[in-house]
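Agenda item 2: pyridoxal-5'-phosphate complex prediction
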Amino acid sequence: MGLHDQYGLTQVINARGPFTPVGVSRSGERVAAAAAEALSGFFVMEELQDLASRTIARVTGAEAGTVVHCTASAITLSVAASMTGQAPERVAALPDTTGMPARVVVPAVHAIDYGHPLLQDVRLAGATPVLAGSDTECTLADLEAALAHPDTTCLLLVSSRLVRGAFVPFDRAVAAAHRRGVPVVVDGAAQDLRIGELLGTGADLVAVSGQKYLGSPTAGLVIGRAGMVGAVRAQEKGIGRAMKASKEAVIGVLTALRVRQELDLDAWRREQTDKAARFVERAGTLPGITASADRDPTGLPFPRARIAVDPAEAGLDATAVATALRTGSPSIWLMTHDQDKGELLLELVPLTDGEFEVVLARLAEILAHPPQDQDRARVSA
Ligand SMILES: *Cc1c(COP(=O)(O)O)cnc(C)c1O
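Presented output:
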């Protein structure tokens, strides 16, 4: 009996991407087996973290790396590291930042809410966020003005679909900060496939998620300069105690990095492109549906399937289709940020062949028998 049956839990098909409220991602067999084995053993945690640092350095070309609880903690601990360095009395004092460089400049267009406000990750370390630019744009001049103070760190977010507005090219932003001796921390949560590119901007620390596309247990990787990574690790004796990586997470990350290194990325990319094309072809034959394959807006190397719903022909609109999928069994989750424009997006990467078929079958069924208004009202009540 599976866990869902045992505990009476909702069966989920996740076509929404690495979304935290539905458990983010699916670990592969090797990662799951390694994490399970780690759970029943003891380890010298410092040795595990030293190994993680060497492995991350070898895989990414960075000087060093460490594993913390998640990306949110990676951001908080990177900010903390920029304020304390490796000074034990400073580490122990946080979040009291008296006498420390506690200003953190964030372009206003990057101050997103990814489930909670990004700025809270900054404040959690005791630092004070300072917004640069407006809600629609942050120019190089805006950024330079905000950086032109002592005691500053700069936090940047890699393009995510949550970002609204224009920002200068990353390498220029990093160079502007470095001209003033300001360290740069990058939130690249879902960008583990682009770590090299992000480190290439010159950023001092890059935070990426282990549990998103890398498929490890919940973990945040902090990657970059050895001194800064050392200062992140120093937080273990401070606020980082509440944000530590477990042994199964570190082992899971090590295994996921090994799996990633062995992956034939070109073949994988072709597979994802074919999968999206097959979905688009079949969904496009359904009444009232126009389907297409979309490039990922954040530069990730796989397409997403977009379906546009014509309510006149389909008998219901995009929002009603998404609701019917989510409230059915299994519960099917997809990206609904464009549903008001009549469009739904599906990320097909983690779907098994069986799940792929279930999504198409349920879509066909909903369009053949649109739920009655009455049912919909009951569902949303
Ligand atoms: C997912 C995400 C985070 C947080 O990641 P966790 O590992 O869940 O803490 C932070 N920033 C961005 C842009 C994200 O997408």
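Discussion summary: The longest strand covers residues 152-157.
Owner for follow-up: CH.
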